[in-house]
Amino acid sequence: MDNPTITTGRSGNHLSLLQKLAISMGHVFNDLCAAFWFTYLLIYMHFVNQFNSNTSGTLMLVGQVADGLATPFVGIECDRKLDWFFCKYGRRKCWHLIGTLCVFLSFPFLFNQCIGCENSPEHSQIIYYAAFITIFQFGWAAVQISHLSLIPASTPHSSERIELNSYRYAFTVFANITVYILMWLLLKTNDEQSGSQISPSDASTFRNVAFIIIGMGTVFTLIFHAGTRERNTDNDGEVMDQEQQQQQQVATLSTDLRDECRVTVWHGWLKEIRFYKVALLYMGTRLTINLTQVYIPNYLQESLYLPKKSVAYIPLVTYTSGFLSSFLMKYINQTLGKKVTYLIGAILSLGACTWIFFGTDENFKQWGIFVVSVIIGASNSIMLITSLGITNDLIGKNTASGSFVFGAMSFVDKVSNGIAVWVIEHFKPCATFSCICCDYYYRDILTFVCGGATALAIASLAIMTTDKKKKRPIVVNEYRTATVVAAAATIITPDSTLLSNHHENIINKDELEDEQTPLLNHSSNSICH
């Protein structure tokens, strides 16, 4: 539940079911684009556009860095009170609309051949695609941040906020499954005409799916804007009330606790060793998850030589497995604790990586790959949800500083993933076309790079278990606004909402040993008024 001292004085009617559904649809466009972007960008650039691996990796790096830089910028600007006429439409809805327009105008160009420059050198086409990628990532960040901050601003009732996050995640699942089914159907239809492997003749398939995504996303966005009314919270008095309430909360801590804790500003986290340990754990987790999502399609095409439609139904199996596994997280965490739960997920991940390395025969191609996909989906879900919970334990009672902590984690996540993809593509032996020496390159990437990232996370977890139990500093936040918290808490993929849905009210062994702390949605909502 939200802190009652924060919600005191807030009044308003309950949202109707139609209003809840309309608000929850505000991120569907982003979810559709994100699933397509991460899973198929490298496949499209390399197999359809015939770009070399260096170019494909560079474009992914540009997107990740642009997203990482846009997130805090949009978060701060989205909270700035402006007197512009169109801002009377609603500050967050206005930014949501701006972001949607950027995505709408840029996304189709990412999965279409360079208009008027298809025969130009690759370095010229890089500039073309990089420009649209930057616009797309800026718009994507604007939609994500404004929508996350709009949810707690839409209702003062904690139960309704939880319900909105649940609906939002349901639409995320719908969006991801829709993308993979669309690709499966269209690639299957085109399979008879252009062969079993993805090639330039499949350009129309990627283009058509991109246009379908644009059409579907536009419909859901229109429903969101028509059915959502943004509450007016743009007054300085409210901000001052929040600051006074935060000071009162610090003042009401027991004398012993205040004596053992030191009050500092947000950059006090930089002096905390545990902050870097958790950041290392989180980075290893995100590298494992994102690199498997990015490189499984390449592995299916260049290592296993499976039919082109496999790049649709294998990710579908992985995503569905992760979704179903997330429902078990509350029980597992309550029973075993976060650290043991994370270790189980990491061991499953290492097992899948090992199986991929040895799985080269026909039996593996026929059924083994499906089992591995299920294991990967389950392990990714366990590791992601638990790592977010561990990050919240780091924040503890310093909920006002959650924006900085999650912002730092998110930035490191996006930049490290972009650099990792660039390095992997840069060192690929055959940068232009597949050859015998590259048959097992992506198999080795999934085995050693993803497995290495998991091992890095396990090492960080092991170091964390040696920490002495001690009080963490209370960090007085310098940020004042709701959207920065939501922006900082965003994760590059839609899975961030899992925490709100499946970690609700989890009390486990770790929390009993350390301090029981509010979860991500609680810490965000407590200041998002």
TrEMBL record:
Keyword presence, Mitochondrion: no
The keyword Transmembrane is assigned to this record: yes
TM annotation in the entry: 28-47, 95-114, 126-147, 167-187, 208-227, 310-328, 340-358, 370-391, 403-425, 445-464
SUPFAM superfamilies: MFS general substrate transporter
One GO process term, biological-process aspect: carbohydrate transport
InterPro entries: MFS_2 (IPR039672), MFS_trans_sf (IPR036259)
GO annotations of cellular component type: plasma membrane
Record key words, sorted: Membrane, Transmembrane, Transmembrane helix
Database matches in Pfam families: MFS_2 (PF13347)
Molecular function as annotated in GO: symporter activity
PANTHER family, per database record: MAJOR FACILITATOR SUPERFAMILY DOMAIN-CONTAINING PROTEIN, MAJOR FACILITATOR SUPERFAMILY DOMAIN-CONTAINING PROTEIN 12
Family: Belongs to the major facilitator superfamily.
Official protein name in the record: Major facilitator superfamily-like protein
